[in-house]
């Protein structure tokens, strides 16, 4: 075991190494799945490099001295190119337990698949699943822990479940007197604040907070909002420490170094996700069962309307039984859609939903998600039953957007109270 003096020396050396990228690939680099570049992404302007919270070892490693640490992490939790658990374990940090969210600690479980407790074979550390028999740490889980580190890459949408995991971990920490440290990361959709506010009757496993579809916050800012708005049970407060991202603003383009989940495997998919995930609540396949999920939408009955086609198949670790498996689907191909339009308009895209609903011949089945193996109905994804009613009634996109007010504007104003970055 290293002394803490040695840990600090190692941390300084590790930090210098991690922030100096070389062309050589290590075994650890090969373990992480990089996000494929979109063919339409424009080159990012020259700027001072963004430094994530995790990469600032000097900012938090001394604070871990003498503490028993728990970590809420997945495959996106990296220091340089190495998993943060592996890095901190090698530096002698006393990691008692790792908590894994949806998709598991190493990020290899498909969406919606329950994950069991285990022991990490690489480090020997206990792994407690938060996406299986329980959804938040128990009193027993936290009895031998002084501080929890939360280090997970989010993509900035209400129905992406990692902020729900954050909420539950904060609640467990508050109930058991355990401090939470967030190692913050940029939000690739941080520039986008749009969508209807979640109504209380539509709370579910894919949305519990009264926020729009795309919330425009980092995880650190979201944690501050949870505390500040007293969203935890009985308004309890979590003792919170955030290690901020350096050189970051919300409007900066940011390409994720690691795919945040198996089906968000390209930058194109990540930026389309706030718009195309709504198709989870329809009878349309939206690319699950292909290597380009969330960038195409189609249905077998659309052959007479569209020439573009693809065939979903079972893919282990991504979508083993996708909707319309082994059937040719016809519809929209968004793989070359100019994703910079989202930055220019500041809006999610509703036109694809309106277009495909109008084109689909059996409209009574369009929102019948129970006939598919999708994750949730459209009311829970949109956060309001009005959205489905408006699409069915043929309400224009502008009228739909008007119905989001004043809630959306009120949220934007409230959000300002919790911002850590311009």
From TrEMBL:
Keyword Signal carried by entry: yes
Keywords (A to Z) from UniProt: Signal
Segments forming domain Peptidoglycan beta-N-acetylmuramidase NamZ N-terminal: 69-267
Pfam families documented for this protein: NamZ_C, NamZ_N
Signal peptide positions (record): 1-25
GO molecular function, one term: peptidoglycan beta-N-acetylmuramidase activity
InterPro entries assigned to the protein according to its UniProt record, in alphabetical order: NamZ, NamZ_C, NamZ_N
Signal is among the record's keywords: yes
Listed name of the protein: Uncharacterized conserved protein YbbC, DUF1343 family
Organism: Pontibacter indicus
């Amino acid at each position: 075991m290293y002394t803490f003096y040695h840990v600090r020396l190692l941390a300084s050396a590790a930090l210098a190494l991690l922030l100096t990228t070389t062309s050589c690939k290590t075994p650890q680099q090969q373990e992480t799945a990089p996000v494929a570049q979109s063919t339409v992404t424009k080159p990012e302007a020259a700027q001072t490099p963004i430094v994530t919270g995790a990469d600032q070892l000097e900012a938090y490693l001394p604070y871990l001295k003498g503490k028993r640490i728990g970590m809420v992490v997945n495959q996106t939790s990296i220091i340089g190119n190495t998993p943060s658990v592996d890095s901190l374990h090698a530096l002698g940090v006393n990691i008692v337990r790792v908590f894994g969210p949806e998709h598991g600690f190493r990020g290899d479980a498909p969406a919606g698949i329950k994950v069991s407790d285990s022991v990490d074979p690489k480090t020997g550390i206990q792994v407690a699943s938060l996406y299986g028999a329980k959804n938040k740490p128990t009193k027993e889980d936290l009895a031998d822990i002084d501080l929890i580190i939360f280090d997970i890459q989010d993509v900035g949408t209400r129905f992406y479940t990692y902020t729900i995991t954050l909420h539950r971990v904060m609640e467990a920490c508050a109930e058991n007197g355990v401090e939470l440290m967030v190692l913050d990361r940029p939000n690739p959709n941080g520039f986008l604040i749009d969508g209807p506010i979640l109504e209380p009757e539509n709370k579910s496993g894919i949305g519990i907070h009264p926020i729009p579809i795309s919330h425009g916050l980092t995880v650190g800012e979201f944690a501050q909002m949870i505390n500040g708005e007293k969203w935890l049970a009985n308004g309890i407060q979590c003792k919170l420490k955030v290690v901020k991202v350096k050189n970051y603003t919300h409007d900066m383009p940011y390409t994720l170094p690691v795919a945040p989940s198996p089906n968000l495997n390209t930058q194109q998919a990540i930026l389309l996700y706030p718009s195309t995930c709504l198709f989870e609540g329809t009878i349309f396949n939206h690319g699950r069962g292909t290597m380009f999920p969330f960038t195409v939408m189609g249905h077998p009955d659309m052959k007479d309307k569209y020439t573009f086609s693809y065939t979903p198949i079972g893919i282990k670790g991504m979508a083993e039984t996708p909707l319309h498996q082994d059937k040719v689907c016809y519809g929209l191909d968004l793989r070359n859609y100019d994703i910079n339009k989202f930055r220019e308009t500041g809006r999610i895209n509703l036109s694809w939903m309106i277009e495909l609903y109008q084109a689909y011949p059996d409209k009574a089945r369009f929102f019948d998600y129970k006939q598919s193996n999708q994750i949730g109905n459209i009311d829970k994804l949109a956060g309001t039953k009005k959205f489905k009613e408006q699409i069915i009634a043929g309400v224009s996109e502008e009228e739909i957007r008007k119905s989001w007010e004043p809630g959306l504007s009120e949220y934007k104003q409230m959000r300002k109270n919790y911002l850590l970055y311009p």
